[in-house]
Backbone:
């Protein structure tokens, strides 16, 4: 029972930890990536007409539509420089997406003013040695490649240069922090020479709306306009698939351990059957059938397994609650200060059902096999006594 309890507790803890990682990843990308992104099939910037914009906005499931323009740019701060993705967004983008909650210093200010505002990621600041104390005395120089001008021929004239002021620094995760720089949409369009064009439309939906259903409906609706819809999960498919694969691979390993642990119950029942041989003879002489005796031992095995599983579930839930409440296991230098845990009722029920089903199956088959083996042994003894 103790063995089953510890294996069950381990399954609850590990599954809750993976659920916590999934929830953390989803939460981080939810601030940065829109639920649905509308792009052109060619992946090139395109013009969205007022009619198309109004039709999309009229969908009752849509909360907000935001125009976005992205491209690779070369940036410099003092003597340091690097290549990042410049993302031009509208002024209220920070409040709609939740980017304001990811600010490490300053504000998510991309207001359309005379001076170009810029909000780089934490990783970008690290590469360019940009301070985080909101005392940005130097301007950030943004160089955007001019379409049609080759660097080998035009040299510095192959870029259009714009000086911008840093208004804040955001931090989502290591991959995004080192990649993105936010600027006002109008300034991005001017720098890239693409007035009125966008690289995508980010669609933010109302709560409880099925993202996949919206993407499917819109893909059918806008296929003639050469527009395609990509969900957040599709955009970050590799991360989600990797997490899921690790989760179920670990569950399979723990299930195998549970499978081995079930042999402990069989061993206990084998010893019990041998110990109770005389009692079984008395029960048989009193009229107890072989099926009734089998049921007694099967019930005992199931009871041991069920009690062990129940204790394991309670122990696992208690440890998970403690980690979630008190943060016993810390994560230094990470996005969160302690290891994430997410207790999911469905996962706990699945673990409990798996433990009960596995133990019951083992008990039924093994008890029947042991009892039949015992019966054959008794028959041989009886034949030997008669022959003697």
Residues:
């Amino acid at each position: 029972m103790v063995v089953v309890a510890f294996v069950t507790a381990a399954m609850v803890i590990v599954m809750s930890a993976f659920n916590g990682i999934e929830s953390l990843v989803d939460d981080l990308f939810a601030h940065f990536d829109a639920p649905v992104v509308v792009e052109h099939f060619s992946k090139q910037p395109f013009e969205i007409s007022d009619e198309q914009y109004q039709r999309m906005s009229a969908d009752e499931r849509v909360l907000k539509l935001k125009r976005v323009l992205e491209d690779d740019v070369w940036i410099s701060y003092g003597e340091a420089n690097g290549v990042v993705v410049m993302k031009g967004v509208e002024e209220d983008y920070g409040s709609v997406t939740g980017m304001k909650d990811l600010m490490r210093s300053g504000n998510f200010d991309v207001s359309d003013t005379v001076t170009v505002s810029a909000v780089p990621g934490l990783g970008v600041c690290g590469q360019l040695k940009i301070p985080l104390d909101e005392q940005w005395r130097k301007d950030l120089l943004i160089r955007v490649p001019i379409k049609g001008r080759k660097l080998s021929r035009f040299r510095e004239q192959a870029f259009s240069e714009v000086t911008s002021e840093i208004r804040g620094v955001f931090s989502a995760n290591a991959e995004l922090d080192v990649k993105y720089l936010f600027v006002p949409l109008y300034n991005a369009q001017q720098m890239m020479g693409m007035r009125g064009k966008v690289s995508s439309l980010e669609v933010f939906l109302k709560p409880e709306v099925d993202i996949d259903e919206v993407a499917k409906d819109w893909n059918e609706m806008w296929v003639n306009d050469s527009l395609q819809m990509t969900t957040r999960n599709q955009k970050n498919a590799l991360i989600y698939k990797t997490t899921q694969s690790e989760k179920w691979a670990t569950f399979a390993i723990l299930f195998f351990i549970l499978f081995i642990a079930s042999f402990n119950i069989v061993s206990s029942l084998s010893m019990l059957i041998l110990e109770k041989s005389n009692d079984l003879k008395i029960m048989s002489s009193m009229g107890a059938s072989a099926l009734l005796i089998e049921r007694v031992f099967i019930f005992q095995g199931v009871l041991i397994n069920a009690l062990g599983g129940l204790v394991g579930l309670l122990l696992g839930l208690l440890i998970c609650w403690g980690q979630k409440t008190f943060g016993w296991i810390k994560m230094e230098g990470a996005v969160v200060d302690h290891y994430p845990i997410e207790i999911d009722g469905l996962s706990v029920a699945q673990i409990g059902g798996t433990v009960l089903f596995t133990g019951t199956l083992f008990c039924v088959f093994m008890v029947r096999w042991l009892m039949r083996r015992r019966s054959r042994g008794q028959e041989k003894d009886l034949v030997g006594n008669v022959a003697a």
The two ends are 45 Å apart (CA to CA).
